[in-house]
Amino acid sequence: MSEATHEIGYAHCFCGRRAVIRTSWTKQNPGRRFQSCLNYERGGCRYFDWEDPPMCPRSRIIIPGLLKKLNALDDANKKLQADIMILKEGNKKLAMVIRLLIVVMIPVFCGSVWWISSTKSSGSRCFEELGMKMIG
């Protein structure tokens, strides 16, 4: 341990400030916590002390593999979330087109039915001119 004061759970660095707990992700110490000066990464007083005991050799092998799998799953999840957003936008556009078709086609269909029923004999003649047979 360094010359800085250290109590259970927290320490003060050589600057006199409360040290912060960080996590190492190096191959030798994956997931191992340590205490350091608040400004450790920018020079600071360079105070450093391990919070956790050394990692066993098996942990040094397993943790990086698990971390790699977790990162791959996070990346896949982000891609799927982006795909969902694209599909939702497509669904909104499709719903709008369907509504438009309904608004346009119902009057056309109703008008056609009315026209055919109001001109019973001419309705069948119209179908015959189009090359179709009227059912019924």
TrEMBL record:
Q: Which residues cross the membrane?
A: 94-116
One Pfam family from the record: Zn_ribbon_GRF
Q: What UniProt keywords apply to this chain's record, in alphabetical order?
A: Membrane, Metal-binding, Transmembrane, Transmembrane helix, Zinc, Zinc-finger
Instruction: Report the InterPro entries cross-referenced here.
Output: Znf_GRF
Q: Where in this chain does the record put each GRF-type domain?
A: 13-54
What is the designated name of this protein? GRF-type domain-containing protein
